[in-house]
What we know:
The chain is of the alpha+beta class. It has helices at 42-50, 118-131, 135-152, 160-170, 172-190, 196-213, 219-230; strands at residues 10-11, 29-31, 37-40, 59-68, 74-87, 92-104.
Amino acid sequence: MKKHLFRTYHSQGKAPGWPCTRMECGGSLDAVEGSLRHEGAYDSVQAMDYQSYHPEMEYGRYVMALRCTRCDDRVVVAGAYGNEEVELPDRFEHEEMLYPKFFFPALPIIEVPSTCPPGVRNALTQAFSAYWSSPGNAANSMRIALERLMDEQDIAPGKLHHRIGIFDRSHPETGEFLEAAKWVGNVGSHEGEVTHERVLDVLELVEHALEVLYPKDTTRLRDTARAIIAAKGK
C-alpha cells in the first residue's frame, strides 16, 4: 500500500500518480491537459470584488479529468481548491492546492485479491469512494466488509466482535488485524469522527488479511518450477 498517494491534497501541477481503477492494468492516472475547471465559491468571489486581493481569498470548487498512462481509461475527480502558503528555500509563496472529494470510478486504495468474494469487494469499494469526503463513512463501509467476510468464512451470525473472536481461533495470524479494523468501524458507525490517516492504517491491515485468506493462484508458477526441476535447469 502506498499511503502517500492518498493524501487529502496536492498541488495543482503535481498529480500524485494515483493507481488506475483497473488495478490489473498496473498504470497510473495523470491529469488530462486542459481539463481542469474552477468555480469560485460565493464568499470568495464577494471578497475579491470588494476587498484588496490576497491569494488566500481565492477558493472554490473544481472538476478535472484523469487518464491512465497505460490503458487510457478515464476517471473524473471533483473537489475544492484554495491557495496555501508554502515554504521555499529562500522565501514563502502561495501555491494553488487541490483537495479531492470524489472520484468516479472510485480509486482502489488497496489491492483486493481477484478471488475475494464480491460482497466483501463491493463493501471495500464503497469505503474507497467515501474515503475522500467522509472517512467516518469509509470506516463504516469497512465494518460492513468485515461482516460479509465473516459470512464467507462461515462464522455464525451474531455481534461482529464475537464473530471475529471465533474467527481468530482458527486464523490467529489475521484475527487481530480484523479486530483493529472493527474498532475503527465502530467509531465510524456510532461517532463519525475518524481521520483519513486512521482509515489508511486500517485498510492496510485489511489488505494484509485478505492476502493471507485469498492468496494469489500460484499454479502456473509451480508448474514452471517443476518443469525446470525435471529438466535439471536445461
